[in-house]
């Protein structure tokens, strides 16, 4: 068989969108192909061929129309890409046979047509490209070898290369023909004196992605790594390699990122063979994988090694078997043995090397985590295994997912680096804050006089929480702020705050829910001290009550809840809105004792979780009441005035005027909508208080502060039962 350098096929293409240096950056389809054969031994050229390609969408950009002169009507009559590629292969093969040649290599003006257009489009359309499209000659790089002083490779164009060697450009009106003729002129010029160039350097496109292990000691160039974001959670390394089809990914160069719970977070770090391929990958920013667009950003070698690198000999030996498909099993019984797993998978999906193809994930003390990785020799066996997703082993259903070598490293690194006893950093210097001095203690109870903050910025300190609370900080019990940390001593984004009463906890939850802290909104929920204590000891909150910590802690009973029933002797009925709907009997409010000279106590900026808790990470869900207890709406009538008369003034922010209660609001109504409804009453945004139920959703009610009682009564008289987005609104003054 003749060498690939015997014959070149000059190949040119245009898309329905951007062309030239931006070819393929907008994900548009091919609409034009032009080619011509060049016999390098005889310095002869073949027939110039031009054909149109019918795209799925004939919507042409203005740039495309101007540069190619093509119209949508012409393209509708053309053949689809698959047929055009078959015509190309048949035409070139027939012409080669007449020249006595048997093989050829494509020659293109830069790699974009092959790498950024043809391979990605064929991959999306599930087309199998002929072998000739996996090897090509880059004319710019070949020209740079002959004329190194012509400038950087990336800056070269056909026009600049022709000008440098003093060759007049071909005069041709039709797009595509002009570019191919100029390329042929340049090739023929490089074949003769003074260059006598031999085309011997070929660019290649990888047929498939090769998985493999990566060591933490390996040097990774930061100019070769990108971060892909927005991936479907079920995507595998092969799916990511398919998204970057045409670009060469380094062996084992796809690292799927996991979140704190060990689940994929929709991000991946990808390492390419060089910076040129990395730069082309960045041009695929916001290209699509299915119906989702994927964001592509630069990343560093350190980030890649942190995710994909490993040091375990056991993992290295497990991953040393090449060309294997990796499946992750999750939710295995802790007593499961290799024989149990092999029996679960069955004979239709044999594991590579039997038990040696299994890797159980364990804690440092040898306890199983319920995870395992399995190797399969081919895609068929792996597909058979995935069909057993959520089938039962013992008394548990098992989840099966495609996995990667990098995910194996990441999961093993995470579990094996977890200390048996949490090692936390020393607390920073104490910060003084003027609060009443009381010994720090937590008394458990079912009264919901605490609040939980969820979604805090990880850099948030207690000072930030106190600033977030604003005027409600005076209602915090001394030493009542508790930050929740994970097993590595890092903030989990949660905090618990003990308030002086359940009423004040309720008001804070209503006033501060989804308020912003450092560009993030924070969710605020009311909870009990018993729920708070469970979480601080490592337990979890769920919809059916409390789950005790997994370590050997006392098993406490879940709290009991009693439906609220207003008692006039203790609290006016109108004030029931300020009582949690799921409280035990409310306590009689008492005015705080006045202390003319309060002592200074100190809040430690970090209060850690119990050091004896299990080292597994626990992320509590929002505290909610048992599903058997429903939400009880508060009765209409006067609300805030009665409460303000009997309680400390901090229950509601002290402000002049009169309150009006709104009922029947749409759940998507906001403060601006309410201000528009009361247009002409000179209300400010802080005059409106939206009310929420225990699931954190709006209850359809709001309190509005008017500048005077007269204005409030006038608003009730004029606006009651008026439509609000199609809903009649009920208004009542709070006496």
UniProtKB/TrEMBL annotation:
SMART domains on file: RRM
InterPro entries hit by this protein: ESRP, Nucleotide-bd_a/b_plait_sf, RBD_domain_sf, RNaseH-like_sf, RNaseH_sf, RRM_dom
The UniProt record lists the keyword Hydrolase: no
One Gene Ontology molecular-function label: RNA binding
Principal cellular location given in the protein's record: nucleus
Domain RRM positions: 658-735
Gene Ontology biological-process annotations: cranial skeletal system development; mRNA processing; RNA splicing
Localization (cell): Nucleus
Keywords, alphabetical: mRNA processing, mRNA splicing, Nucleus, Repeat, RNA-binding
Gene Ontology terms: cellular component: nucleus
Role played: mRNA splicing factor that regulates the formation of epithelial cell-specific isoforms. Specifically regulates the expression of FGFR2-IIIb, an epithelial cell-specific isoform of fgfr2. Acts by directly binding specific sequences in mRNAs. Binds the GU-rich sequence motifs in the ISE/ISS-3, a cis-element regulatory region present in the mRNA of fgfr2.
PANTHER family: HETEROGENEOUS NUCLEAR RIBONUCLEOPROTEIN-RELATED
Family: Belongs to the ESRP family.
Protein name, UniProt field: Epithelial splicing regulatory protein 2
């Amino acid at each position: 068989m003749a060498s690939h350098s015997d014959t070149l096929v000059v190949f040119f293409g245009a898309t329905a969108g951007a062309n030239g240096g931006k070819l393929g950056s907008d994900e548009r389809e091919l609409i034009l192909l032009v080619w011509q054969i060049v016999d390098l031994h005889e310095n002869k050229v073949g027939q110039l061929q031009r054909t149109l390609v019918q795209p799925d969408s004939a919507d042409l950009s203005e740039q495309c129309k101007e540069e190619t002169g093509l119209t949508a009507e012409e393209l509708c009559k053309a053949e689809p890409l698959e047929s055009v590629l078959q015509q190309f292969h048949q035409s070139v093969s027939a012409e080669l046979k007449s020249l006595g040649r048997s093989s050829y290599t494509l020659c293109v003006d830069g790699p974009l047509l092959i790498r950024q257009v043809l391979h990605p489009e064929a991959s999306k359309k599930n087309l199998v490209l002929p072998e000739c499209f996996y090897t090509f000659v880059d004319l710019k790089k070949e020209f740079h070898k002959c004329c190194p002083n012509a400038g950087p490779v990336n800056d070269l164009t056909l026009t600049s290369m022709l000008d440098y060697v003093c060759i007049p450009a071909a005069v041709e009106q039709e797009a595509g023909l002009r570019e191919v003729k100029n390329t042929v002129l340049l090739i023929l010029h490089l074949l003769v004196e003074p260059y006598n160039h031999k085309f011997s350097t070929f660019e290649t496109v990888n047929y498939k992605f090769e998985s493999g292990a990566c060591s933490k000691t390996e040097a990774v160039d930061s100019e070769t790594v990108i971060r892909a974001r927005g991936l479907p959670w079920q995507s595998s390394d092969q799916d990511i390699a398919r998204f970057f089809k045409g670009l060469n990914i380094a062996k084992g160069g796809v690292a799927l990122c996991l979140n704190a719970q060990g689940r994929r977070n929709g991000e991946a770090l990808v390492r390419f063979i060089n910076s040129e391929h990395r730069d082309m990958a960045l041009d695929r920013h916001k290209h699509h994988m299915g119906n989702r667009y994927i964001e592509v950003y630069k990343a560093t070698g350190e980030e890649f090694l942190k995710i994909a690198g490993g040091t375990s000999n056991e993992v290295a030996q497990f991953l040393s078997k090449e060309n294997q498909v990796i499946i992750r099993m999750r939710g295995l019984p802790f007593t499961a043995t290799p024989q149990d797993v092999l029996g679960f998978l069955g004979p239709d999906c044999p594991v590579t090397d039997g038990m040696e193809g299994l890797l159980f994930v364990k804690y440092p003390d040898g306890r199983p985590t319920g995870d395992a990785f399995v190797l399969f020799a081919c895609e068929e066996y792996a597909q058979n295994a995935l069909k057993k997703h959520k089938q039962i082993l013992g008394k548990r259903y098992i989840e099966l997912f495609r996995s990667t070598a990098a995910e194996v490293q990441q999961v093993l690194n995470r579990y094996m680096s977890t200390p048996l006893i949490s090692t936390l950093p020393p607390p920073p210097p104490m910060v003084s804050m003027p609060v009443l001095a009381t010994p720090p203690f937590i008394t458990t109870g079912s009264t919901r006089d605490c609040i939980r903050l969820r979604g805090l910025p990880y850099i948030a300190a207690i000072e930030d929480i106190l600033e977030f609370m604003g005027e409600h900080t005076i209602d915090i019990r001394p030493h009542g702020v508790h930050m929740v940390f994970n097993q590595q001593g890092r903030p989990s984004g949660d905090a618990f705050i003990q308030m002086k009463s359940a009423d004040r906890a309720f008001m804070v939850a209503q006033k501060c829910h989804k308020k912003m802290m450092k560009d993030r909104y924070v969710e605020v929920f009311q909870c009990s001290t018993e729920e708070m204590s469970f979480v601080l000891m490592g337990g979890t909150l769920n919809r059916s009550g409390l789950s005790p910590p997994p370590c050997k802690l006392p098993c406490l009973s879940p709290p009991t809840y009693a439906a609220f029933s207003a008692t006039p002797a203790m609290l006016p009925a109108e004030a029931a809105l300020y009582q949690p709907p799921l409280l035990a009997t409310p306590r009689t409010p008492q005015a705080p004792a006045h202390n003319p000279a309060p002592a200074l106590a100190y809040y430690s900026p970090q209060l850690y979780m119990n050091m004896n808790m299990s080292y597994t990470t626990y992320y509590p869900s929002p505290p909610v009441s048992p599903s058997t207890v429903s939400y009880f709406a508060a009765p209409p009538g006067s609300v805030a005035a009665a409460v303000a008369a009997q309680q400390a003034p901090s229950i509601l922010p002290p402000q002049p005027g009169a309150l009006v209660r709104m009922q029947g609001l749409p759940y998507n109504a906001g403060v601006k909508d309410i201000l528009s409804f009361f247009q002409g009453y000179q209300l400010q945004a802080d005059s409106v208080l939206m009310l929420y139920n225990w699931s954190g959703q709006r209850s359809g009610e709001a309190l509005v502060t008017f500048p005077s009682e007269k204005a409030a009564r006038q608003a009730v008289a004029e606006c009651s039962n008026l439509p609000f987005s199609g809903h009649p609104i009920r208004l009542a003054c709070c006496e």
